[in-house]
Amino acid sequence: MLKVKKFVFSPVEENTYVVYNEARDCCIIDPGCYSTTERNELKDFIDELGLLPKYLLNTHCHLDHVFGEKFVADTYHLVPHLHQNEKEMLDLSPLAGLRWNLPFDGYKGEVNYLTEGEEVRLGEDKLKVIYAPGHSPGHICFYCKSQHFLVGGDVLFRQSIGRTDLPGGDFDTLTENIRNKLFVLPDDVVVYSGHGPETTIGFEKANNPFLL
Predict the structure, then answer these.
(1) Three-class SS of residue 94?
(2) E strand or H helix that includes residue 206
């Protein structure tokens, strides 16, 4: 059974997730740790539980979700996993950091690409890849069918959706993907968003003003 640990990192208050099981295998999703203190917080949690990082996963590669990409990759000898349409975002993220006055050392190196329907396995536990662009061109979500939760990045928030005014964003594409790929999931699926609190599919279907 998987457990989900959330960290809120950086001035942008981004949600970084560590998903782990009883065998102590874990994946790190969207490492947004910006400061040395935040990086130590993430590492201390992993060390204290004796976790074994197996994957570095990215829902997308806007700068706030990859501040800690190089740190995680170097510390745990992991190769980032992302959709191929996010590679340009990853490469340009340090430049975006300078523009936002949030400079950081970006990851440079090998990457692995994930595709729609592919499964990331931690032992017997599985996270299914759902391709849901609109906020960014290669945005993906990670769905655990057996435990009814979704690590959704910046697609769907509590009573909101991801912004679509950034490069590669498109409102119609985003809302179509939410309706056709997320709202078909069971109502009790918990959505762990890239910012803010958790929500559920059923609550958003009934209450999200962008989708009513």
Answers:
(1) helix
(2) helix 201-207
pLDDT in tens, the chain (212 residues): 999 999 999 999 999 999 999 999 999 999 999 999 999 999 999 999 999 999 999 999 999 999 999 999 999 999 999 999 999 999 999 999 999 999 999 999 999 999 999 999 999 999 999 999 999 999 999 999 999 999 999 999 999 999 999 988 999 999 999 999 999 999 999 999 999 999 999 999 999 999 99
Q: How far apart are CA 12 and CA 21, in angstroms?
A: 29
Cβ contact 128:189 at 8 Å: no
pTM of this prediction?
0.97
* Amino acid in position 60: H
- The helix (run of H) or strand (run of E) holding residue 171 is helix 171-177
- Residue type for position 136: S
* Cα distances (angstroms) measured from residue 54 to each of 66, 78, 81, 134: 17, 7, 11, 28
Task: For residue 140, give the 3-state DSSP assignment.
Answer: strand
* Element holding 149 (H helix, E strand): strand 149-153
| Integer Cα distance of 39 and 47 in angstroms | 12
